[in-house]
Design brief:
4 strands; globular; about 40% strand
Length: about 70
């Protein structure tokens, strides 16, 4: 799972490792895309912090099909 694999990267404040790729897909609205080997992808945004640390709002998780209409 991408989040578990990326936790050490988030905790150290460093960049995500090469297998996890992140890009802004709708920069004006703060939506990002996370992809990982095997064709997985997810879209997400930052939400209001609920506990100490970043709060992530997962929008869609799956394969490239997540970009089709719901």
């Amino acid at each position: 799972m991408p989040l578990v694999a990326g936790l050490p990267d988030l905790r150290t404040g460093g960049r995500f490792r090469a297998g996890l790729r992140i890009k802004c897909v709708r920069c004006a609205s703060g939506v990002y895309e996370l992809t990982w080997p095997g064709g997985g992808r997810a879209t997400w945004s930052y939400g209001t912090e609920r506990i100490r640390g970043a709060h992530i709002v997962w929008r869609r998780v799956g394969t490239h099909d997540i970009f089709t209409s719901p």
